[in-house]
Amino acid sequence: MSAVEASEPLQLGRAISVRLQHIGVERQPLMIVDEVLADPQAMIDAARAAKFYVPHHTNYPGINAPVPQSYYLTVITALRGPIEAAFGLSSSAYLSYFGFFALATIGAAEAQPIQKIPHRDSPDPNRLAMVHYLCRGLFGGTGFFRHRATGFESVDAFRLAQYESTARRELAEMQSDTNYERIGQSEAVFNRLIVYRSHVLHSALLTDAAGSADPAVGRLTVNGFIEAAK
């Protein structure tokens, strides 16, 4: 599937700022970058020109579309230094990136339990996840959680079997999301990008109402994954 391109070359915002937080008992890093792009509207325009599809390979509560290739070259390349420092990546590692536009069109009231409970994207702590909020309005951001039964705030390969066994049982019993305690969050601030380890338990904080499928007014984000190859 070919990627669309933004109508103008992407440039970093002049007021861009980077800060680092640590979440929970595990002190997992959360990098927060505000005012990322000088013209975020260019990405919204690219999303409006993109062909969205329902992602059958994930439980995402909405639709996805290809992201411009220039996005990686601009954003990830420019932020490489802060990413290395925050997550302990080698300066000699090659960073591969995969990303997509995401529109959350299913509200919490209609979403399936699997679509709104906290999850981890990968058990590999060296794989990073990111979300870039390109939406204006009262949208929920991203929450980070502790699983009460196991005490896990992240799930790596050593914890995977224990966590999945317990989480599957809880889901089958239709237990509520009180199985998870929120330990941190990022608000959905327009033109904010966050980066965290993909094995950290997290979830989009969906509002009850269904979201618009129009990228100009819906909960539009760029979701992506960064992996360091030695």
What's a concise summary of this model?
This protein has 5 helices and 10 strands. The chain is of the alpha+beta class. The chain has one domain: Jelly Rolls (Sandwich), CATH 2.60.120.
Question: How would you describe the overall organization of this protein?
Answer:
It comes from Steroidobacter flavus. This is DUF6445 family protein. Pfam families: DUF6445. By secondary structure, this protein is an alpha+beta fold. The chain has one domain (17-229): Jelly Rolls, CATH 2.60.120. It contains five helices and ten strands, in the order ββαβααβαββαββββ. The strands form two sheets. It has a seven-stranded antiparallel β-sheet with strand order 1-2-8-5-10-4-3, with helices on one face. Strands 7-6-9 form a three-stranded antiparallel β-sheet, with no helix packed on it. A hairpin with a 4-residue loop joins strand 1 (17-23) and strand 2 (28-34). 36% of the residues are buried. The mean pLDDT is 91.
Architecture blueprint of SSEs:
Layout lengths: L16 E7 L4 E7 L6 H9 L12 E5 L2 H10 L1 H8 L6 E11 L8 H4 L10 E7 L8 E6 L12 H13 L7 E7 L5 E6 L4 E3 L15 E10 L1
Given as residue ranges, the uncertain stretches (5+ residues, pLDDT < 50) are none
CATH topology: Jelly Rolls
Main beta sheet: 7 strands, antiparallel
- Helix- and strand-based class? alpha+beta
Principal-axis shape: globular
**Would you identify the CATH architecture?**
Sandwich
Name the helicity range: 10-25%
Helix tally equals: 5
Q: How many independent structural domains?
A: 1
What separation lies between the terminal Cα atoms?
A: 27 Å
Instruction: Kindly state the number of beta strands.
Output: 10
CATH structural class:
Mainly Beta
Give the strand order, joined by hyphens, for the main sheet. 1-2-8-5-10-4-3
Percent in strands = 25-35%
The secondary-structure element order is: EEHEHHEHEEHEEEE
The chain-level mean pLDDT equals 91
Radius of gyration: 17 Å
